[in-house]
Write a structure and sequence with these properties.
The complex is a heterotrimer of chains A (about 325), B (about 300) and C (about 400). Chain A is mostly helical and about 325 residues long. Chain A has 14 helices and four strands. Chain B contains eleven helices and two strands; from the N terminus they run H-H-H-H-E-E-H-H-H-H-H-H-H. The chains are: A mainly alpha (about 325), B mainly alpha (about 300), C alpha/beta (about 400). Chains in contact: A-B, A-C, B-C. The interface between A and B is large, with 44 and 43 residues.
Chain lengths: ~325, ~300, ~400
């Protein structure tokens, strides 16, 4: 796998990252102000998908592994946390944690199998594993089949945050998103992240330098799975619903689209990509299948002419990696 | 001895035969994918959509031009193959220098566009396509009633697979093809137009998908989504067989059809999953697939 | 049963009387048609339901009565998450007062939960789940057209009585299929029939040949199709291919719509028996209404779902007029109070659990030779009177119904 392939601009000196802090400040400020003029439920949906896309980007952008089955983590966590909140009566924070842990566990199993191969093979294996999870979710008794798990209680977080209040819920979701986002940022800029990038650039060389690349890849895979799970679990609490949509392979395709559109291997790209796609799905919903066609067109345009994505191009224009 | 499994030998034969029919579709589709992958190193996600378009071409030809099934077997692969050639010339060609994954993403995008377009035009409940009169009816084999059309599907796809295998493995043209996969520059130096060969190969692979689509039309109804779910199963077949292996994809296609058929008898709930389970096991034991070269 | 109904009604009216502010929000009654606009159920609901809702508003004479009615629609893509977020948005932001149609039980149950406790109402016509008026019933919801219980009851009982004693099921392997299989099995056994077995097939199966062979070798007289949409169509079609009907076994479609028969063609569908709430060719009144519908919907005759949307919206508007308010739970309470009457379902009633009761009909698909042209597909076999067509009020476990 070569650098040219991904067209990720090598980060400038790691010392000059102030502009990333500025960008982070702008993003956070936007989310704090946004609910005044944008419908909060839409924002929460976008935040969940933004976290999902960021988690996915950790694999494709920083390890160079394209997973085509990431929906399995989003969906599994959704089902588990919905079940925990509804049937076991867990408070929301525990339900979300349980869901996330379930996805992490699934990540260990799927990862151990998938990282044996690279490139296209990796993509196909993850896809096939996700199909298995899909059929499991369709048939397992606790998932409710096509109905999904419905009427999941939002509950009271930490005993005092009443999540049935929409704005309280919004702040909680925003906090979860920022936590995940910053965690990914830390991972990417840590020595561990440097090794991941080395593997992306040239796995043989990383191996010859004495790194057990499989370990690193597996850890990255599990982290990505767990954070995707966090997004899925939060989504289930927000929408009070866990359904098959979140485990279907088209969802795996959508997260690829979000990340690609925003910019592979950029910190802010997946967030932007997720917002654009979710906004499009929301506002064009009445046009039915045109949404699919437009998504397909975006894929084609991004791959042919626009491989850096929105934020990647912006970063190049500003000459600063975002 | 068969009674031990809780099923009479008659019923078992019936199920094996049905598995073979489904295997024919897997084999033809995975064959096309394997040919394309072998030459272009691209995972053709559009394959399912092209299979679907093949069926629609047949429907359209019958509805508006009165051209029957037999004409469609000829026309659909040519039309869809030509469409594939345009795709290759205008889009895929630009990606050969990049990572293979971009090919996957591009073809995925194209598949979405095509699928969305056909859904808009024709809705999702599907259009009926009659079985050609000469193949209607069926034979009572004693252990089961075999519709003539299904028998035809097995025979026809076996022939197509064998011819393709022969073309690629046993003819001069095929040897150029295989050589060009190994070392395009060298083959080019012998005066062979490699880019054109690649284009034609893609057209051929896509044509195979369309042919399978025409075969499927009388059985499954012509439906914009008919390829979408099938394609993922076929991916798994190709992975199990070993990417790019012609023989591997054909043999695995038929074999998995049979295994899936047996699953439908003994544990029907798992019949959609069994192929993926086999894939996971194969990858654990033989990462390059059953017939694949180790990468 | 009668007593419990009265008690149930009393409970609901008491609840409605609790707050009494009579007005129509934003001075407009906004009807949101939420259904499948592009997928599997687009033909049986889709734009046709929008047409039906508009016709109801016109026939009600909204303009003359000074009530402004607006109809909007959205595509739920058969995804519960899409359905529930559209509903939320409609209620929170766009001032939609009533959500109608919503085929696909999964989506309907999700919408039901969002509407519960809000200021909107939910008039379901398209979904099959009996839970909407059972354990999941809601003071904001009316379920108009049909449900699994009614389908199972209508089709299975009639077939067993006609001598189809031994059943084998082809069941879609998920909640809906299991539920339908269970309901039908109960009816079959209670009517003196026998269930020989079932094979579970995965959802959206393309090839049914293996399952059909298993059904064939079971030797059952009746093969019950506990599946829906494309799965039903494919199983019927392939059953014809494998000569199952010619071999003497009969198929029983448990969820079949006019548009399915239209797509299958009578060649394939002939002889199939199924239960529906409405058929355009029932009587003069339905014929006249369906003719008007067809004129506005590209010549296509209405399905029972379209008819249900019409009936439910018409009755809803009557309740709004009587109440001078469009507050969801109050209107629904009023809908239960006044008896229903419309050109499509005739006279009927909305029960305390939200179930609209009316006669159901057992139909058989005609042979091609009996059909006089397009859309002439059904033969009426039996009319199931309203009182036995639906699950008795006290058997649904609906919390709104006080146990008597």
């Amino acid at each position: 796998m070569t650098t040219a392939a991904y067209q990720i601009d090598a980060p400038a000196k790691t010392t000059t990252l102030t502009h990333q802090y500025v960008a982070f400040g702008i993003m956070t400020a936007f989310f704090v102000v946004a609910p005044i003029f944008i419908y909060p439920v839409f924002l929460m949906q976008a935040l969940c998908f933004a976290l999902f896309a960021c988690a996915f980007n950790l694999l494709i952008g920083y390890v160079g592994l394209l997973s085509f089955g990431h929906a399995m983590f989003l969906g599994t966590a959704g089902y588990i946390s919905a079940h925990a909140a509804k049937v076991w009566g867990f408070p929301p924070e525990l339900a979300i944690l349980t869901g996330t842990a379930a996805s992490a566990l699934l990540g260990v199993l799927a990862g151990a199998l998938a990282i044996r191969r690279q490139g296209i093979y990796f993509a196909m294996i993850t896809l096939a594993l996700a199909q298995m999870i899909y059929f499991f979710a369709l048939q397992a008794p606790f998932t409710g089949g096509e109905d999904g798990i419905q009427a999941v209680p939002r509950g009271i977080m930490f005993g005092f945050l009443d999540l049935s209040n929409q704005m309280t819920l919004y702040w909680v979701v925003l906090a979860i998103f920022l936590f995940g986002f910053l965690l990914i940022y830390r991972i990417v800029h840590s020595p561990f992240g440097q090794v991941l990038k080395a593997i992306r650039e040239n796995e043989q060389r990383a191996t010859s330098l004495g790194y057990k690349t499989d370990h690193y890849k597996l850890i990255a895979f599990v982290l990505s799975a767990a954070l995707s799970g966090l997004a899925g679990a939060t989504k289930a609490i927000v929408f009070q619903l866990a359904s098959l949509t979140d485990v279907h392979w088209t969802m795996s395709g959508e997260v690829v689209l979000m990340t690609l559109l925003g910019g592979l291997g950029t910190i802010f790209g997946p967030v932007a990509g997720a917002f654009i796609i979710i906004a499009m799905q929301n506002y064009l919903a009445q046009f039915g299948q045109w949404v699919t066609i437009i998504q397909g067109l975006i894929f084609v345009v991004c791959v042919l002419a626009f491989r850096r994505g929105v934020i990647g191009e912006l970063g190049r224009y500003l000459k600063k990696p975002l | 001895m068969f009674e031990l499994l809780g099923i009479s030998p008659q019923a078992l034969f019936g199920q094996l035969l049905i598995g073979l029919i489904n295997g024919s579709f897997y084999a033809m589709l995975s064959l096309g994918l394997a040919v394309i992958f072998g030459m272009l190193n691209i995972i053709n996600f559009t394959h399912g959509a092209q299979y679907m378009i093949g069926a629609f071409v047949a429907w359209y030809a019958l509805q508006y031009f009165g051209l029957n099934y037999w004409w469609s077997l000829l026309i659909a692969p040519i039309v869809v193959g030509a469409f594939g050639i345009v795709l290759e010339r205008t889009m895929l060609q630009r990606l050969y220098k990049l990572d293979h994954l971009y090919g996957l993403l591009l073809t995925f995008g194209i598949a979405l566009i095509l699928q969305g377009f056909f859904l808009n035009e024709f809705g999702s409940s599907g259009l009926p396509y009659p079985i050609p009169p000469s193949l209607q009816g069926g034979q009572n084999l004693g252990f089961m009633f075999l519709p003539n059309y299904r028998a035809w599907v097995i025979v026809f796809s076996l022939v197509v697979c064998l011819v393709t295998w022969y073309l690629i493995e046993r003819t001069k043209l095929g040897s150029y093809l295989r050589a060009a996969t190994e070392n395009p520059t060298l083959v080019q130096a012998f005066g062979i137009n490699v880019p054109r060969m690649i284009t034609l190969t893609y057209g051929f692979g896509v044509g195979l998908a369309a042919l399978a689509g025409v075969l499927a039309a009388p059985i499954y109804r012509v439906n914009p989504l008919m390829g979408a779910d099938l394609i993922i199963v076929v991916f798994a077949v190709v992975v199990i067989g070993g990417m790019g292996s012609i023989l591997g994809s054909v043999v695995t296609g038929f074999a998995l059809g049979i295994i899936e058929g047996l699953t439908k008898v003994f544990y029907p709930e798992a019949s959609n999953t069994v192929i993926f389970v086999i894939m996971a096991i194969v990858l654990l034991l033989k990462p390059a697939g059953l017939f694949g070269r180790t990468a | 049963m009668k007593l419990s109904r009265v008690l149930g009604l009393a409970a609901v009216t008491a609840f409605a009387a609790g707050t009494a502010s009579a007005q129509i929000s934003d001075n407009v009654v906004k009807i949101g048609v939420l259904n499948d606009q592009s997928g599997l159920y687009a033909d049986l609901s889709g734009q046709g339901s929008v047409v039906a809702a508009r016709m109801a508003a016109e026939d009600f004479g909204a303009e003359q009565k000074g009530i402004k009615v607006e109809v909007v629609f959205a595509d739920h893509q058969n995804k519960p998450d899409v359905g529930s977020s559209v509903t939320r948005q409609w209620i929170d932001r766009d001032g939609v007062d009533v959500i109608v149609d919503t085929p696909n039980s999964a989506v309907a149950l999700a919408v039901n939960e969002v509407v519960r406790g809000s200021r909107a109402a939910f008039l379901n016509s398209g979904a099959a789940s009996s839970d909407l008026t059972g354990p999941k019933c809601s003071p904001n919801t009316v379920h108009w057209t049909y449900d699994n219980w009614a389908l199972a009851n209508g089709t299975a009982r009639a077939i067993v009585q006609a001598g189809g004693k031994n059943w084998y099921f082809l069941t879609a392997d998920y909640a809906f299929g299991h539920d339908l299989e269970k309901q039908v099995s109960i009816v079959v056994e209670n009517s003196g029939g026998k269930v020989l077995g079932a094979v579970r097939h995965p959802l959206n199966t393309a090839d049914f040949s293996s399952f059909l062979l298993q059904a064939q070798s079971s030797g059952a007289q009746i093969i019950g199709l506990a599946n829906a949409g494309g799965d039903t169509i494919n199983s019927i079609k392939q059953a014809a291919e494998f000569g199952i009907v010619r071999g003497g076994q009969k198929l029983a479609g448990l969820l079949i719509f006019l548009t399915d028969i239209h797509a299958l063609s009578l060649d394939v569908a002939q002889g199939l028996q199924f239960t529906e709430a409405f058929y355009w060719d029932l009587n003069d009144s339905t014929r006249a209404w369906s003719e008007r519908f067809a004129q506005r919907h590209g010549g296509k005759k209405p399905t029972m779902v379209h008819a249900g949307v019409y009936g439910a919206v018409l009755h809803y508007l009557k309740a709004v007029e009587a109440l001078k308010s469009d507050d969801g739970a109050k209107v629904v309470a009023k809908m239960k109070e006044i008896p229903t009457e419309d050109p499509v379902f005739g006279k009927g009633q909305v029960r305390a659990d939200g179930r609209h009761v009316h006669p159901m009909y057992l139909f058989e698909a005609k042979a091609p030779s009996e059909s006089k042209g397009p859309w002439d597909y059904y033969k009426l076999i039996r009319t199931i009177p309203a009182e036995e067509a639906f699950r008795p009020l006290d058997q649904g476990n609906c919390p709104l119904v006080k146990k008597g």
